[in-house]
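Treating backbone geometry as a discrete language has practical consequences that deserve illustration. The sequence in question and its structure tokens are set out directly beneath this paragraph.
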Amino acid sequence: METTPLLARPKKKSIWSRFNFSRFRKRELCSRVIYLGQLPEEEYPSNYVCNQKYNIITFLPIVLFEQFRFFLNLYFLVMAISQFIPSIRIGYLYTYWGPLCFVLAVTLFREAIDDFRRYRRDKEVNRQRYERIVLDSDINGYRPFITEHVPASTLRVGDIVMLHKGQRVPADMILLRTNETMGTVFIRTDQLDGEIDWKLRIPLPSTQKLPTDAHLLDINAQLFVEKPEKDIHSFIGTCTRLDEEESDSLDIENTLWSGCVVASGQATGLVIYTGSETRSVMNNATPRSKVGRLDLQINDFTKVLFVATMFISLLLIVLKGFDGPWYWFMFRFVLLFSYIIPISLRVNLDMGKAFYSWTIQRDKNIEGTVMRSTTIPEELGRIQYLLADKTGTLTKNEMVFQKLHLGNALFDKNNFYEVEAFLTQHITNDAAGPAPPAGDAGDAPPAPPAPRHVWQAVLALALCHNVTPVYDVDDQRADEAQSDMGSSVMSESCGGAVPQQQLCDYQAASPDEVALVKWTDMMGVSLYRRDLHNISLKLRAANEIVSYNILQLFPFTSESKMMGIIVQEENSQAITYYVKGADVALSKLLNSSWLSAECTKLAAEGLRTLVVAKKTLTKNEYLEFESEYKEARLSVTARAERTAACVARLQRGLALLALTGVEDRLAERVPQTLAQLRAAGVKIWMLTGDKLETALCIARSLQLGGGARWLAAPECGSRRAAYALLDSLAADADRTDLILEGETLEVCLRSYEEEFVELLCKCSGVVVARCSPTQKARVARLLRARGLVVAAVGDGGNDVAMIQEADMGVGIAGAEGRAASLAGDVSVRAFASLARLLLLHGRRSLMRSAALCLFIVHRGLIVSTMQAVFSVVFYFSSVSLYPGFLMVGYGTVFTMLPVFSLVLDKDISSTTALRYPQLYKQLTKGRQLSYKTFYIWIGISIYQGGVIMYGALVLFEEQLIHIVEISYTALILTELIMVALTVDTWHRLMILAELISLLMYTATLLIFTTYFDADFIRHWDFWWKVTTITLVSCLPLYIVKHMHRKWSNRQYKDIQK
């Protein structure tokens, strides 16, 4: 037998080739040929995993650059740097550099911690050790093989690696062998595509038949693999045994993608892609960076305040006169008024957002909720549109078999016992004779079904699937699974003899298939054993096993919308092709008068329908098909088209067997949650891949729309049809709930995008059936482009694009996996959590952030107003009113705790917020943080600053030397009182914050005699006059606040009525 040296190393490269700087050029992806046992000479990417954003050199420059891209931070950096110029220095350097350095230090620390965590995760992944087969040193002309344990980062294209149960696949590989007795292996792909169902993988026939892994070294094989692609659901390649002239086609079922986990047994694979060329890395697209509307509004407010600062500074210079170095004086004024733009605003808001996220995750009523994006919790408080998936989101994704239609008989849960009786009659006594042809059942007058007809339908359901029974084995036997260099062991799957009393679990890629197999088990036809080439059914009525050889398997694809299998009964050698799929795909291949009408009826009941058919093949017909199909699968170009053509020829002459209806049960409390959200003014659109009739039935049962009628849009294939649809909806859109298919939506958007989106927004409810993941994301993008706040909720990998595109993505950790949960800005366990998440937490987060933002702006504006009055009174002097220590203390020690305690405020109780969702509707108008409220608070700041400063001048006319003590004390008291006036519901921590701040300021007055005259402060005249100034500044605002609360209470009463 011809042999090749294993892992032959490529030739050494020249010195110049090592310094050709090719690493800086983007590598062109190309297909490759790999010889089994040889490392290719071409250079491929390293398998080193690196998710770090920085290194030691780039950390500081990149982080600083990212921070100073923001106008606010850049503004304060310029202000701080200017203090190094003596002629324009206002006070101590720490006055400006202290707050800025604190903000930067917090950011640097957070980024460093996050990057260090990424480094530790990467290090852990890179250091995971794997068994690699290599040749030992030459002994008398023979090189025996050995296994060595190497880290994942050192693996290269061409390496042969052994993987054990529970191990992560370190690189993209081709499955060569497995020790599973059934000849296949299961893998978990939840970290790749989010689906939690185990996937079946098949080794290459030419290598699986070898006795042990050691024999892989004795063959001469060549593998051709396509260039690296992003698509994780397809693969094209070939494997040719040069020593036996045997070829195998490579498909997706032969692959092990990086990031998957071996779920059973042991697998031996050949590395074909590493590092950046693996499927998992190529699909790691950076999601859209989401910025909340609150942050955008604050950025706009900051620009307005900057313009105000420049205007006031220029105005004072104009009044002072352009004498001397006026530009230096103007810059000093800009520095003096820099507190108009508070640097603490960003810090307080970020801390508030972290607190909101913490409270959401601690809410026991929505246990399991995780805020993955802590930067936009306020977006939950202004949602206008909610885009929801159906399966697994509004429904449980728990499939229950409900109906079986045979054309002349309909069976449901009330008479399934009749099916079992027919099966028993057929299995024990076949005297009833054959049933009439299934394809003509609808044309004949109704007659009771024959036992043979029922048997054929149930047999098709028991055979046509990709379900594998998996039996429990004890851990001791599982631990005995070792490398099969010389032996094999029994695995967890039921390829070997399985005791009848062992519990069986079904593994499949779709819960629909599991529901069908469980139903046939209830009827007495159980899936007992399955491997790569055989499938065994246990017949309860006869207590016997019937075995079938699997000749071909055609997996389900989104293009074909069907799956099929060709089996040969071991006893009779009869060959049958079974196929099941969507009615839209199979109805074209069948000639039946009853199928279309019954599909519509079952879909109207909210059931997912599947059509089952079969075709009997002669041996010659099968051999002819096998030859054509194998040739098509070995083709490298146009493989999909050629194989589809072969299968299409096979599907001619199909006979209809049955129509099945499977129910996807509604999730808990979904109708009540939808009703609450509709009352809150949130419009709910359902985007699903199901057929129109099923989607419409679910929408009706959920009471999804709020209109007077449901209108099913006719199919539109042209611009004229789209215009007709627009014209028919224009008159009564606001009272109509619209349901349409994805193709119709595509045509209408292509022809009349603006008009159609505007029309959809007017509808009270919208359902899009047969909607692809790309269309879901596009709908979210179209709504966002029109300034609407959009939330998207889903539970499957096909919802990730929509979740990432929406303003607020909500992922549900459900039966379809974790992809949506990990991609979402917030993860919940059930759709019902959305009511509390939006109506309570979203509302509070938005209102608290708005109050916090306005109050911090007010805190900076009031002291800047006082500075302006001081400068005007004292002959336009550009001297600071307060020393640097007092300015820093004003924004931190004396007022920080009371102001930040506003994040604990509650305007209404949680019970009221959920009982009257109409209160949420007011938030979507954006009145809590608008230019109107912003200017109102500017007016309040100017009024209070003017009152404090002019009050001090009037009441202390003969004691102006103590202007600092007078005005600063009134300023602190005013701020503490304003916090008290802003609070709606007192919390004990709020009271504590007020008392601590007051005590700290009192202690400062007595201790820091450098800034304050203790004798003057102890005088009674000081306190009553300061109290008078404070009351004049706050009392009018208290009256206004009291009237506003009365008006708000009246609104609440109107809503309650």
